[in-house]
Specification:
Elements: H1 3-31, H2 52-56, H3 64-87, E1 94-98, E2 104-108, H4 109-121, E3 126-136, E4 139-148, H5 154-173, E5 180-186
Parallel strand pairs: 4-5
Antiparallel strand pairs: 1-2, 3-4
Helix pairs in contact: 4-5
């Protein structure tokens, strides 16, 4: 799940939760006898959500029902998009590997992630790594986040990662290619006092 989608998901969930909490809490408070402000939609425990006049106000307008149906359809489509985006798998479960004899085998995605992580951690200048396989089982992609030691050259680490670690994984799994998105950060360290 991308960072934008994650932010949209959290924002929408928070807004929906706040609206439901405010409406539900206010209806409960009015039902228990709390006197609401004069501008609030419910004034007493016996109040209805929509009066007869409010429900039938736009019945004769020709644009009312098409607008309501279009808004509801748009809301339903947005809800379906949100649901599929949330339920979509981020991590690749299996990688389809060519066995060399015309057959194929399934390699667990976590096993390949573990091997890549172990190779990357032992690389010179790498303090920590996080690796995630995404994509399709026939075309996996790697997302790598590296935390580098303060005195290491990022270009050297990136070169070693692509020519050694990723190339070794690609050859071992029999993949034609293994594209990777690599993010580099350096480890923060305390300033040293010179006397």
């Amino acid at each position: 799940m991308s960072a934008v989608l994650r932010a949209v998901n959290r924002t929408l969930t928070g807004l929906v939760g706040l609206v439901l909490l405010a409406l539900g809490g206010s209806v409960l408070a009015v039902g228990l006898g709390v006197r609401p402000p004069s501008w609030w939609i419910h004034q007493s425990p016996h109040d209805v959500l929509l009066s007869d006049a409010e429900r039938t106000r736009w019945r004769d307008a020709g644009w009312w029902w098409p607008a309501v149906l279009a808004a509801l359809a748009l809301l339903a489509l947005l809800a379906l998009w949100w649901l599929t985006a949330v339920l979509r798998r981020r991590r690749l479960a299996d990688v389809l590997v060519d066995t060399g004899d015309g057959g194929t085998a399934l390699l667990r995605g976590r096993a390949l992630e573990g091997a890549l992580t172990a190779d990357t951690v032992h690389q010179k200048g790498v303090a920590d790594t996080r690796l995630l396989l995404t994509g399709r089982r026939t075309a996996p992609r790697a997302r790598v986040r590296l935390r580098l030691e303060p005195d290491v050259d990022p270009g050297t680490v990136l070169h070693d990662l692509t020519t050694q670690t990723l190339a070794h994984a690609r050859r071992s799994a029999g993949l034609a290619e293994l594209p990777a998105e690599v993010r580099l950060r350096s480890v923060k360290h305390r300033a040293q006092r010179v006397s």
